[in-house]
């Protein structure tokens, strides 16, 4: 196994980490205006605070998974980084603005008592969660489907090229899946009314997610050479992903929140693994001519750089995993309506 | 719409905005960690109130450092794709390492610090802020390793039209890093120290929470003095290094159009830019030799000679940076630097004489002095980045060759306008919150109240 493949896998892991960790952060932000509805405005405000406090300790550390994925892409496959980031310019700009808005909004929202202040930042939390949830799916949908790339590794499509039906469907998949994921997370981290409304939301969302995922799977069979590459029976991983989301519905129904969370996470992770499995060894598929696709070989850094980065990764990734896991342990308790709230 | 001009303007604006928030993060993280450690060791609740108060302001500032930083990481690929292709093999690694080592550390542990007061032992909780401080400062190290490669390429070989890494240790031990990093760190401490002194001065003038702010002022004065002196010493080392590694930048910083032997130091030079000549100049003879080489005799090459040399070496072209901006940035930065040393020493003097609170005029000045490091920081970056024009990688790649060729000018204009407006709005929100919480002073009790904003701490209350 060459280092090029190792780094393809590592970058996939970083993006999967991002999906699995920020996914529920986005979901919580999306659900916040809906689950906090209450006849009394200060109860609404209180519920919103509880909701953002569930992700309060974690969202920033989770977001770093995206930054590390981007940085690792730059380090290991600079051509991929250059083509992707310059090509998807306006889409990335939107993503950045949404992430910026969300980041500041979460931190600043409760630091002033003015209802208008809070209402503004709440909107930004919602938009800053919904837009990235959608766009990240659109981005990966385009990566899987292929985009116009010329012989010089330049993206030659426009912005609207990226908003094709397949990519939008992929975006709908991540948007709905993350929302479901967020609902289950909320049901794990809260109690009382919020927990109940989160459970109800999860039940309603589950079927939508399954339908969208099935649509995406079908579209993938038609839009891509998925069958040719992975076979009609795509193998353990995509099948597990599908089974996992079905199981998730069972657990949601039975109010087995922990298992529901775990199976949803597996479904999200394995869906992304499938995308990467399909793409390998290409990192950006050219819809114009497969010979112009960027691969783990023509887009990569030198073997020396890959070696240096591998050593760094072997040392530090386990350390990061350990202390991030610890941080979830520190904040394992449910938030109730009496819990002190920092955000 | 020229994509190159817009991309350059955008990078300058976003970087200066980002570096508005970063130095305070670098220095204040350490100061807060220090205060919390003092609390843990002494049990004195005074230090806890200080930790909470300054920590709150730290967090408000940190949020903007993070979000403006995300844009930076993406911007290399988005607007400078050809640069990314050329240097990615070397430049990408420090950025990835920065994320893996530093960003994860600071973000994860700040989350724990903010939310974990009631969940961790006092010692462990204090440790989390130390980890945040380490994270932010390590982040500075890795980005400066990356930037230093741009200023002084090392550890590489040219292969297939790209720069490829051949020695990681050369990259990390690049001498440019080890003059730039200490200078930047010290600047961070100066920024934080003046921030603390200024806000403390505000409260001491109004006799609010005297104990908290007297002690805060003390700590900041000590740190500020040491840091301000170190900034100057490190800056001096950096300049001496740059005379060798980037002579054109230094010549521009001195507006030294013609080679001089011995070289004089310009106190003030007014140039006629269209002629690229100086119109009026007050110079101190030999002083530049003293500064550059610690000796009274030397020859320092002027801009015109260097230009001729570069044309021989690299082919025809314009190798002269924008001299007026580089020159004045240098003067302003250094001038403010010395002013800050003076102010810090004054603060220290007042502290040692225990007369801080009896000097209202000084306190007024320290309030305004908060701004000085911010101005110096910005001009420092303007100096060092514009001073390397026309290079984006010194001697290897010109700026115009690095820009993204697939991004039309219209798109860059959109992003430029959007970033500028949004950053401006966010900065306004930040200044609003920091001013509000700074003026409110420390809260009573040592538990985050259920709704701090609603129960605004009383401004009256000389009880400590």
CATH architecture group name of chain A: Up-down Bundle
Mean pLDDT of chain B: 93
What structural category do the secondary elements of chain A indicate?
A: mainly alpha
Uncertain spans of chain A? none
Distance between the termini of chain A: 47 Å
| Name of the top-level CATH class of chain A | Mainly Alpha
Largest sheet of chain B: 2 strands, antiparallel
Shape of chain B: globular
Estimate the strand proportion of chain A.
under 5%
Tell me the domain tally of chain B.
1
Order of helices and strands of chain A: HHHHHHHHHHHEEH
The number of strands of chain A is 2
The topology string of helices and strands of chain B comes to: HHHHEEHHHHEEHHHHHEEHH
Count of helix runs of chain A: 12
Judged by helices, strands and strand pairing, the structural class of chain B is mainly alpha
Mean pLDDT of chain A: 95
Please characterize this protein's 3D structure.
The complex is a heterodimer of chains A (about 350) and B (about 475). Helix content of chain A is about 75%, strand content about 0%. Chain A starts with a helix and ends in a 13-residue tail after the last helix. Chain A has about 350 residues and is mainly α. Chain A has one domain: Formate dehydrogenase/DMSO reductase fold (Up-down Bundle), CATH 1.20.1630. The model of chain A has no long low-confidence stretch (mean pLDDT about 95). Chain A contains twelve helices and two strands; from the N terminus they run αααααααααααββα. Chain A has helices at about 5-35, 40-55, 60-75, 80-85, 90-110, 115-145, 165-190, 190-225, 225-230, 235-255, 255-280, 305-330, and strands at about 280-285, 295. In chain A, helix 1 packs across helix 7 (about 165-190). A two-stranded antiparallel sheet of chain A has the order 1-2. With about 475 residues, chain B is mainly α. Chain B has one domain (about 5-260, about 300-440). Chain B is about 70% helix and about 5% strand. Chain B has 15 helices and six strands. In chain B, strands 1-2 form a two-stranded antiparallel sheet. A two-stranded antiparallel ribbon of chain B has the order 3-4. In chain B, helix 2 (about 45-80) packs antiparallel against helix 15 (about 410-440). The radius of gyration of chain B is 24 Å and the shape is globular. Chains A and B meet through helix 3, helix 4, helix 5 and helix 12 of A and helix 2, helix 3 and helix 15 of B.
């Amino acid at each position: 196994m060459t280092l090029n493949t190792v780094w393809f896998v590592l970058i996939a892991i970083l993006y999967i980490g991002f999906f699995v960790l920020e996914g529920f952060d986005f979901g919580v932000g999306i659900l916040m205006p809906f689950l906090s509805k209450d006849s009394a405005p200060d109860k609404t405000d209180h519920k919103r605070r509880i909701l953002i406090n569930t992700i309060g300790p974690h969202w920033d550390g989770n977001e770093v998974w995206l930054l590390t994925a981007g940085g690792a892409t730059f380090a290991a496959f600079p051509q991929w980084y250059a083509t992707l980031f310059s090509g998807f310019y306006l889409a990335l700009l939107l993503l950045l603005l949404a992430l910026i808005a969300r980041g500041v909004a979460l931190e600043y929202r409760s630091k002033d008592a003015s209802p208008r202040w809070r209402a503004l930042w709440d909107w930004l939390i919602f938009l800053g969660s919904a837009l990235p949830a959608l766009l990240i799916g659109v981005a990966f949908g385009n990566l899987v489907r292929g985009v116009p790339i010329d012989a010089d590794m330049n993206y030659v499509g426009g912005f609207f090229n990226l908003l094709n039906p397949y990519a939008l469907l992929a975006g709908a998949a991540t948007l709905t899946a993350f929302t479901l994921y967020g609902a289950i997370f909320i049901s794990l981290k809260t109690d009382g009314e919020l927990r109940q409304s989160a459970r109800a939301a999860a039940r309603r969302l589950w079927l939508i997610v399954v339908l969208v995922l099935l649509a995406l799977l079908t579209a993938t069979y038609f839009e891509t050479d998925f069958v040719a590459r992975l076979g009609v029976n795509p193998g353990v991983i995509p099948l597990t992903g599908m089974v996992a989301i079905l199981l998730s519905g069972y657990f949601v129904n039975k109010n087995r929140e922990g298992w529901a969370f775990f199976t949803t996470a597996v479904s999200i992770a394995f869906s992304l693994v499938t995308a990467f499995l399909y793409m390998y060894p290409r990192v950006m598929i050219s819809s114009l001519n497969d010979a112009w696709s960027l691969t783990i070989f023509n887009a990569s850094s030198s073997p020396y750089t890959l070696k240096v980065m591998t050593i760094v990764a072997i040392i530090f990734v386990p350390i990061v995993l350990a202390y991030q896991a610890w941080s979830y342990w520190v904040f394992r308790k449910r938030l109730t309506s009496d819990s002190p709230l920092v955000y | 719409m020229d994509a190159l001009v817009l991309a350059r303007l955008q990078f300058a604006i976003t970087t200066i905005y980002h570096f508005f928030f970063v130095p305070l993060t670098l220095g204040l993280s350490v100061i807060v960690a220090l205060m919390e450690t003092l609390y843990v060791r002494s049990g004195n609740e005074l230090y806890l109130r200080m930790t909470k108060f300054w920590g709150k302001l730290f967090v408000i500032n940190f949020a903007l450092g993070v979000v403006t930083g995300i844009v930076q990481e993406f911007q290399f690929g988005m607007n400078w794709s050809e640069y990314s292709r050329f240097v990615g093999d070397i430049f990408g690694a420090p950025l990835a390492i920065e994320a893996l080592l530093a960003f994860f550390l600071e973000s994860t542990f700040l989350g724990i610090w903010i939310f974990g007061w009631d969940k961790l032992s006092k010692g462990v909780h204090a440790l989390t802020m130390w980890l945040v401080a380490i994270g932010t400062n390590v982040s500075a190290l890795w980005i400066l390793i990356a930037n230093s490669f741009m200023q002084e390429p090392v550890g590489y070989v040219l292969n297939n039209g790209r720069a490829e890494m051949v020695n990681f240790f050369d990259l990390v031990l690049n001498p440019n890093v080890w003059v730039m990093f200490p200078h930047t760190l010290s600047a961070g401490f100066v920024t934080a120290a003046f921030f603390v002194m200024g806000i403390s001065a505000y409260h001491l003038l109004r006799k609010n929470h005297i104990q908290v702010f007297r002690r805060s002022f003390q700590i900041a004065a000590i740190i500020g003095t040491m840091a301000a002196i170190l900034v100057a010493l490190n800056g001096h080392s950096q300049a001496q290094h740059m005379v060798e590694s980037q002579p054109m930048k230094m010549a521009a910083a001195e507006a030294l159009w013609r080679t001089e032997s011995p070289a004089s130091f310009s106190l003030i030079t007014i140039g006629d830019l269209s002629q690229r000549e100086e119109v009026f100049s007050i110079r101190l003879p030999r002083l530049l030799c003293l500064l550059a080489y610690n000796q009274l005799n030397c020859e320092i090459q002027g801009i015109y000679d260097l230009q001729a040399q570069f044309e021989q070496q690299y082919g025809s072209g314009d190798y002269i940076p924008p001299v007026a901006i580089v020159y004045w940035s240098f003067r302003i930065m250094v001038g403010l630097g010395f002013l800050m040393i003076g102010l810090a020493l004054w603060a220290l003097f007042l502290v040692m004489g225990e007369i801080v609170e009896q000097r209202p005029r000084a306190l007024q000045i320290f309030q305004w002095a908060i701004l000085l490091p911010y101005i110096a920081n910005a001009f420092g970056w303007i100096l060092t980045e514009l001073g390397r024009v026309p290079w984006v990688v010194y001697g290897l790649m010109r700026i115009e060759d690095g820009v993204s060729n697939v991004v039309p000018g219209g798109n860059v204009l959109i992003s430029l306008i959007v970033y500028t407006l949004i950053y401006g709005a966010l900065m306004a929100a930040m200044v609003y919150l920091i001013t509000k919480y700074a003026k409110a002073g420390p809260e009573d009790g040592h538990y985050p109240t259920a709704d701090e904003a609603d129960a605004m701490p009383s401004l009256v209350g000389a009880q400590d």
